[in-house]
Design brief:
Elements: H1 7-51, H2 57-76, H3 82-94, E1 108-110, E2 115-117, H4 119-125, H5 128-134, H6 140-152, H7 157-165, H8 168-173
Antiparallel strand pairs: 1-2
Helix pairs in contact: 1-3
Length: about 170
């Protein structure tokens, strides 16, 4: 015996199920991006920790990155470069407390000149590509400004690059 499904009810069901699947996919992608960013921070921390053991830090650091690069490529294939490993190291150096528990307010970390967004929010809203752009900014006030704007305005990586290149922070501080 065949059951006839009313088209109106069935279309609503398909729509609700589709929304659930799309939301699950968005959450999955966001979670994967967060895990990748956390992993790169941890790789950066391990590189810095290892470099600090070396007597000739600059030379040792270069040799360390090249050897690590070769070993990672042997084990995991393409996807690693000296530039990426340097970026991971710099990521940790610029954001040393990103994954550490702080006794300070979890909602904001105060730097000497400006308020920063909490690590949880940064990790949940920004991609590794965003951080790659942010770590290039030497001025901590400008960096904090672009972090806040990227999160609050939901800037894409392309938009954050455009705003940094247009010197938005510098123009606004004048």
């Amino acid at each position: 015996m065949k059951t006839v499904v009313k088209k109106r009810n069935y279309k609503g069901l398909v729509k609700r199920v589709s929304l659930l699947i799309e939301e699950a996919r968005r959450k999955t992608v966001r979670q994967i991006n967060t895990i990748i960013t956390q992993t790169y921070w941890e790789i950066g921390r391990l590189i810095v920790k290892e470099e600090q053991k070396g007597k000739q830090r600059t030379r040792y650091g270069e040799q360390l990155l090249l050897q690590l690069l070769n070993d990672l490529i042997k084990k995991f294939g393409k996807g690693f470069s000296v530039d990426n490993l340097e970026a991971m190291r710099n990521f940790y150096l610029v954001y040393p407390h990103l994954l550490k528990s702080e006794t300070v307010s979890r909602k904001s970390i105060k730097s000497s000149t400006t308020s920063r967004i909490s690590p949880e929010i940064l990790l949940s809203r920004l991609l590794w590509s965003h951080f790659r752009e942010l770590i290039k900014i030497k001025d901590s006030s400008a960096q904090s400004f672009y972090e806040i704007e990227a999160v609050n305005s939901n800037w894409s990586v392309r938009e954050i690059k455009r705003q940094i290149n247009s010197m938005l922070f510098e123009r606004l501080t004048l």
